């Protein structure tokens, strides 16, 4: 292969990949620009590469909207608490599935994997959660996901690759199974547990359907659902204006806030936490996939 | 010294065997298993029991066993619904388009690793996996801010450059739905799904490539003869799983992108199950459709798995 041909290949590939990379990150950059630029410049379509008329009013206003800070807190709480609960029980179940002394451990494992394929569907889930008293309850966000079959499979496979001698030394010291799990198995399994934790935390942060279907209490709203409601509310507003239905009473509620600016700013508030932690956590995503791919 | 250690190890394994037979250890294990089993029963198996709703004239708030037995009435009702065919058409159309673009992540991974600059590789990987980690609400928000006819950045740009006379509105165009939704899914997941293949390529035995270079094989021949066959098992596994989810392309994406103008083309099974169940309050029919969906999906997965077992001696169970 000639050197020129190879250079051409490298440049073409790099150009295509860079174009796609720009498509993946530019929208985020654009939203941030819009949220800190002057509304006039934005509506004229001038804000594309750098902020014009830099200001922070949008953030100041959005943070004053009733419920936004509470929602932020709820989203953080469900992410942290939900992930900790999931890690604790799924790691424990994974450990149990590797223990020959536990009667029926194979069936326990099968019963866990089974749930990955046999999903009940919306209505049965809806009724069951109501029956369990989780309607309008914070526990709805953190309890139903406590056993993640996917996590159990990954962690179990990882535990099985740990040399048994490690455990045996603890047994000699008189440690019970729970102690072995928390003092030896879990610390050694940190790579896979971290990867699973990151995936689960992102899932928790992004989740809104449980909130949408079963929680109407305004103090328990998640940030994602608030954003969703704001987006569709504005759409309703736009539709009403287009259809000539100028019901002023419903429009004037948002009058003091520029709806477009509010929407972009809430979007930025929702996406910012992911953008901030992403560079640090990215290696765990990749590692999780690598570990999963090798085992699976 | 080494003898002593050996002796210790023997003693240790002896002790372990003795200890593990002790009932107290087993009791701890059972005690640890109890909360997990309860969680599985409450959050996974109790909803499955809810499938029985499909066989009763159940209304929200009533006692299931006091509502009359309906047999397969609700399954028949679902089959007779004239919305079902368009729904299935939309579901399958978008699933097959998804299958069609799935080799893109293979290509993405192969050529990314052909790039000589490791820094560039890392940069591309970091940026392109980002969209996978944002919620569908945010994806919808982004599409809205980029593509919508009034506020969309793309329209503003094209209009100001005089490239178009009228604002485009792809989010409200029923003929565009299938392609647009497939493109959005690809945008969100391409970079991330490529990571699996990158891991697989890295796992291919380097000696094969070295041998090929000695034989004078060029880039394309290396890719064709070593990389692609090496990726086949991973590709087949993922293909089998996506055949298992042909009917379940998800709720969030289609619910969020749904609007009055595009509903005829965006309503997939999961959205239909929601509409029948929550909007129309027909719990038994919604459950019946959801149940049939799960069962057919498992059947599809099993069949595809059997075929792959016969043809390639590869299976996921």
Based on the model shown, name its key terms.
heterodimer; A: 296 residues; mainly alpha; 2 domains; 15 helices; globular; B: 317 residues; MetI-like fold; 72% helix; 0% strand
Task: Explain the overall architecture.
- The complex is a heterodimer of chains A (296) and B (317).
- Chain A folds into two domains: 1-55, no CATH class; 59-296, MetI-like fold (Orthogonal Bundle), CATH 1.10.3720.10.
- With 296 residues, chain A is mainly alpha-helical.
- Chain A has helices spanning 3-36, 39-43, 57-62, 68-97, 105-117, 122-131, 139-142, 149-160, 165-172, 177-188, 190-206, 209-214, 223-242, 248-251, 259-295.
- With 317 residues, chain B is mostly helical.
- Chain B has two domains: 2-55, no CATH class; 73-312, Orthogonal Bundle (MetI-like fold).
- In chain B, 72% of the residues lie in helices and 0% in strands.
- Chain B is built from 15 helices and no strands.
- Chain B is globular and about 75 Å long.
Briefly summarize what is shown.
Chain A is mostly helical.
Rg of chain A, Å, rounded: 25 Å
Which shape of chain A, going by the Cα principal axes?
globular
CATH architecture of the largest domain in chain A: Orthogonal Bundle
CATH superfamily of the largest domain in chain B: MetI-like
Shape of chain B: globular
What layout of secondary structure does this protein have?
The complex is a heterodimer of chains A (296) and B (317).
Chain A: H1 3-36, H2 39-43, H3 57-62, H4 68-97, H5 105-117, H6 122-131, H7 139-142, H8 149-160, H9 165-172, H10 177-188, H11 190-206, H12 209-214, H13 223-242, H14 248-251, H15 259-295
Helix pairs in contact in A: 1-15, 4-5, 4-8, 4-11, 5-8, 11-15, 13-15
Chain B: H1 2-20, H2 23-49, H3 73-80, H4 84-101, H5 103-114, H6 118-129, H7 136-147, H8 153-160, H9 177-203, H10 206-214, H11 219-244, H12 252-257, H13 263-266, H14 269-279, H15 283-312
Helix pairs in contact in B: 3-15, 4-9, 5-9, 6-9, 9-11, 11-15, 14-15
